[in-house]
Amino acid sequence: MKPLAPSDVLTRHESFEHAWRLLTDHPAQARALASVDQTHPALALQARTVHCAADLGAGLYPEALAEALAVVDELRGTTDQLWLSRALQIAALASDALYQRDLTLARTPRPSDAARALQRFALHSPPLAHPGDIWYLTDRCDIAPHVRATAQGLEQTAPAGRHILAQTSVNLGILECEAGRLAEGIALLERGRDLADTTGDLAGWVSAVSHLAHVHTELGEFAAARRALNGVASRSAELSGSAYRSLLFAQVRVEYQAGDLQAALLALGALHSTTLTGPEQQAALLIEADLHAQLGRYEEAYTLIERLAELTKQLNTRERDRQLAQLDEKYQVEIMRRDAAVQQLKAEAARREAEMEHLEKVELQRALESNAILIHLLRDSHLVSETLLGVSQLTQLDLDPVDLARHALTLVTRVVDADWCALACRKGGQVTFETVWARTEDSRAFASVTLPESRGVHEALLHSPASQDEPTFASSYERGTTHCPELVDAGLSGCASLPAGTALDVTYVLLLGRLGPDREWTERERRVLSATSHTLRAAVESQERMHRSREAALTDSLTGLANRRAFEERVRDAAGTAFSVAMLDLDGLKRTNDTRGHAAGDTLLRVFAAALRAQAPRDVQAFRLGGDEMALVMDGHSGPDPQVDRTVRAVVEASVAAVRTAGFPEADCSFGVAGWPGEGRTPVDVVALADTRLYAEKQARRARRSAAERPPGGAVVFGDAVLDTVTRDVRGPLGQTKLSPRESELLRALVHHSQQVVTRADLTVMGGLAGNDTGGALDVHISNLRRKLAGVTEHAGIRTVRGQGFSLQWYEEFTDH
């Protein structure tokens, strides 16, 4: 702690103490005295505390609270506990007046600091000190440590602090009893009672006696409770009315709980001799009636109950009269307000009547009014016609459904009384809302926030129009069978739901709503909205049909890729920008169709197309031009570009690998690439160049394959398999196997007459089995040979011709073109 002030300012301290004492009767003089000298920091804090107290006395509670809390924060770092306690007291009283006790509690010092502050406060300023003030310094739940520390400090200040110690002991005893420590609590209450009796503190004595009687009664110690209340009657003259009644009530409770009904009645008699408030009379009559009932005096009990009822009735009547008086006062004010409004209306009526007198004839006025109505109807009819015509013209524009519905709603709001318009789009289970128009900010908030966030709005507003062709109207939304309570609570009184068709699996619904009082949808509004709904639905569904027809016309039905027509449009549309085209030819399709059927060929095409679509980058589009011809188109490359070749090759090789994995090992793909405008005068020339490069690659690949697979001397070739007549090994795409001498001779004979039927007799001679074909030796050798050939190639096999012999069937590899 830093020292508060040097010794040379001691006289100024005395001046501030004098100013503090002047606050009650002479606040202005106290302010003047505190403002004389504030050069020292400690003196400035004391002066600010005096000004805070003066503000508190003047009712300036916010200013007093703010300044007192600031002073508390600065005094916390000094040794001046007296002025700290004074500042805390001011802050507490001001916060109570402002109902801001938490602000003071948040700055509570530690228990030891609070106790020390209270001790100094009690000793230096007894008129303002009270143990209950410590409640202002801390929270009710943490009060016990503070009070206990204060009591210990006051014990050391005896006898100067005995009157404060009495009240502190009573408060601490109450807290101990509430905490369940009854023995300690009773001891403290008895000590507080004795100290209060010694110091003449009647309020402290009454509090201690009342609580002692209550605690003993709760413990069933009725004799102790009676002893605690001894002497109440003898001191009745010294006690105030409320204190005396409190002790008499305590005595009644003790005797009532002890079962001494007569004694309780006597105590009640003494209580009735005092002046009781209305609630106290009710409590006393209720206890007295119960006592008479327990004593069997039912007539007296009944009489007391009647008195209680009458008293209650009187109290209720007083309360009702008070409330009626307040209502009457409000009624009078309302009457005066309405009278003023009536007078204003009368004045307005008089003014209008004076204006009407200027008209020359009543018939002329009627004619003018009729003409005005007719003009209004004509204008209204013209506006409706213009609106419907505008909606119809919108359908002729190339607008997507969202823009079409948005513009249509904007037109409709000119002739329909609505507070907000929104467009709902539902796809699957997801619904989105877009606010198109709102009359006010509240309406916009409802349509933009309340409507999308309300649970059940999908069923309440969208189910019927989305599942039916006709619009629905609700003039009193709350009474509808499918209303949403959240929307009703938000103020929705009417709504119209208009189905606007379905396109690309999205269902569009136009929503118009009204807030506030219920308003009927007029026949004109219903006609306009119904016509708008039908027009939009027809336009959206027509767009959907056209879209699906165009998609079907530009899509290959087998593979799902874009077709030749789409390819030609794509090349034509891209003529103004650079692009590259790759022409692809799927090898092996004809062989698959011939050997495994057209269903397998279709599967090969679908698998290759799916792989092509999956492997192609985002900026590359795949097409099927027909048969085994396909194409890739990519933007941004105008001439020969190695990167384009690498990209196409990577896509093709990955797609070929995918179809081979899917069970088509014979599949392969050739391609050619060209770029516009760097490699042709027209896009058609570029496509032709890519096609030429495709077939050049195919021929080069065929030549390389033929050179690589040309057999050496002594070998026999059939299809994609080779028989080495020296080693008797057969090699093919699927592997290699060795034949027996008989099997090798039989195979050579069949290859020599491939695609022809060789009789059993000729094969027997050619295979060296003449005279040995007993037991079906030829059939055994043919069966083994057929099995071994199946392990090396899928493109060659031995077919049995019933009644004739056998034939070797095989297929050359490059037969697609």
From TrEMBL:
DNA-binding region: 713-810
Annotated Gene Ontology cellular component terms: plasma membrane
Positions of the GGDEF domain: 577-710
This protein's UniProt keywords: Coiled coil, DNA-binding, Transcription, Transcription regulation
Keyword Transcription included in the entry's annotation: yes
Coiled-coil regions, chain positions: 308-367
Domain OmpR/PhoB-type span(s) in chain numbering: 713-810
Transmembrane segments: none
GO biological processes: cell adhesion involved in single-species biofilm formation; negative regulation of bacterial-type flagellum-dependent cell motility; phosphorelay signal transduction system; regulation of DNA-templated transcription
Molecular-function GO terms, alphabetical: diguanylate cyclase activity; DNA binding
Protein name: Diguanylate cyclase (GGDEF)-like protein
UniProt source species: Deinococcus soli
